[in-house]
Amino acid sequence: MTNDIAKAKAFYSECIGWNYTSMPMDDGAEYSMAMDGETPLGGMFEMSGPKFEGVPEHWMAYIAVDDVDACLEKAKANGATVIREPFDVPNVGRIAMLQQPGGAHIGWMTPSN
Q1: Residue-number span of the structural domain to which 20 is assigned
Q2: pLDDT tens for each residue of 71-90
Q3: What's the number of domains the chain is made of?
Q4: Are the C-beta atoms of 20 and 6 separated by less than 8 Å?
Q5: What gap in Å lies between CA 108 and CA 38, rounded to an integer?
């Protein structure tokens, strides 16, 4: 999550050799997949608009789970707060964002393959 995607992409390209491919998102924004050749390593999203005001740049970790919807129900029953309900990303998987009871933010994902 960055405020200046061009600057972040240049930094990681120069420092560790990443290249990028863009993936359109439902809201018209683009998600940049960080690649090592043809191997996806991570991704970047430019934070813009009022919902990101005051949010510092950060990395968001994702944990792969067998069934994100079922796991999210268990998480809510155990004190987690849902930040973003599950959503599908074509050719990637089903993702949900949550805040664990201690306050840390995390993404859970059921990969599509």
Answers
A1: 1-55
A2: 999 999 999 999 999 999 88
A3: 2
A4: no
A5: 24
